[in-house]
C-alpha cells in the first residue's frame, strides 16, 4: 500500500511534517518512482522548480552518495546541504540554457520538473505561463538526457494536448498520471516520459 493511500489526502501535509520532509511533494515523486522506476543509486538528476525541496529530498535518498542532484530554482531550498547536491539559483525562463548546460557539464539520467508559475487566477494567462515553463523543461531534457527519463508537471487545458504531442514525438513512451494525492478539484497531472527518440 502506498503512503498516499495509507494516510489519505487530508493527512498528507501532517505526514510530511512528521517525517521532517520539506513538503508533501516528496510523496508525489515517491509514488511516481514506485510505479515507473525512475531513480536508481548512482543516477544523475536535474530537478527543476526545486524549492522548498520535497523532490530533491527524495532524489538524494534514492541516488545515494554515488549519485548527483542538480537543483534549479529562483527560490532557496529548505533542506540541509549535501555533498552530492548542487543548487543553482536561477529562473529557468530568464536563464541562458547554453550557460546552464555548460555549468551542469554531464549527461543525466532524469530531468524532473515540478515547475509552475505564480498563478494570477486568470486561467488563460496561467496556462500560457505554465506551458512556457514546460517547454523550457522539455528543451533542457532534450539537451541533457542520456538515455534517461523526463517527468514534468502539467495541467489539463487546451495547451495540454499540443504539448502531449510534442512529448510523444520526443520520447518512445509517454504516460500521463493523475496522482492519488492530487486534490479532487485540481487539474494537475504528471507526464512520465522514457527513452528519448534517436532523431530528437
TrEMBL record:
<feature type="domain" description="Ribosomal RNA methyltransferase FtsJ">
    <location>
        <begin position="23"/>
        <end position="195"/>
    </location>
</feature>
<dbReference type="GO" id="GO:0008650">
    <property type="term" value="F:rRNA (uridine-2'-O-)-methyltransferase activity"/>
</dbReference>
<keyword id="KW-0963">Cytoplasm</keyword>
<feature type="binding site">
    <location>
        <position position="114"/>
    </location>
    <ligand>
        <name>S-adenosyl-L-methionine</name>
    </ligand>
</feature>
<keyword id="KW-0489">Methyltransferase</keyword>
<feature type="active site" description="Proton acceptor">
    <location>
        <position position="153"/>
    </location>
</feature>
<keyword id="KW-0808">Transferase</keyword>
<comment type="function">
    <text>Specifically methylates the uridine in position 2552 of 23S rRNA at the 2'-O position of the ribose in the fully assembled 50S ribosomal subunit.</text>
</comment>
<protein>
    <recommendedName>
        <fullName>Ribosomal RNA large subunit methyltransferase E</fullName>
        <ecNumber>2.1.1.166</ecNumber>
    </recommendedName>
</protein>
<dbReference type="InterPro" id="IPR050082">
    <property type="entry name" value="RNA_methyltr_RlmE"/>
</dbReference>
<dbReference type="InterPro" id="IPR029063">
    <property type="entry name" value="SAM-dependent_MTases_sf"/>
</dbReference>
<comment type="similarity">
    <text>Belongs to the class I-like SAM-binding methyltransferase superfamily. RNA methyltransferase RlmE family.</text>
</comment>
<feature type="binding site">
    <location>
        <position position="73"/>
    </location>
    <ligand>
        <name>S-adenosyl-L-methionine</name>
    </ligand>
</feature>
<keyword id="KW-0949">S-adenosyl-L-methionine</keyword>
<feature type="binding site">
    <location>
        <position position="55"/>
    </location>
    <ligand>
        <name>S-adenosyl-L-methionine</name>
    </ligand>
</feature>
<dbReference type="InterPro" id="IPR002877">
    <property type="entry name" value="RNA_MeTrfase_FtsJ_dom"/>
</dbReference>
<dbReference type="GO" id="GO:0005737">
    <property type="term" value="C:cytoplasm"/>
</dbReference>
<feature type="binding site">
    <location>
        <position position="53"/>
    </location>
    <ligand>
        <name>S-adenosyl-L-methionine</name>
    </ligand>
</feature>
<feature type="binding site">
    <location>
        <position position="91"/>
    </location>
    <ligand>
        <name>S-adenosyl-L-methionine</name>
    </ligand>
</feature>
<dbReference type="Pfam" id="PF01728">
    <property type="entry name" value="FtsJ"/>
</dbReference>
<dbReference type="InterPro" id="IPR015507">
    <property type="entry name" value="rRNA-MeTfrase_E"/>
</dbReference>
<keyword id="KW-0698">rRNA processing</keyword>
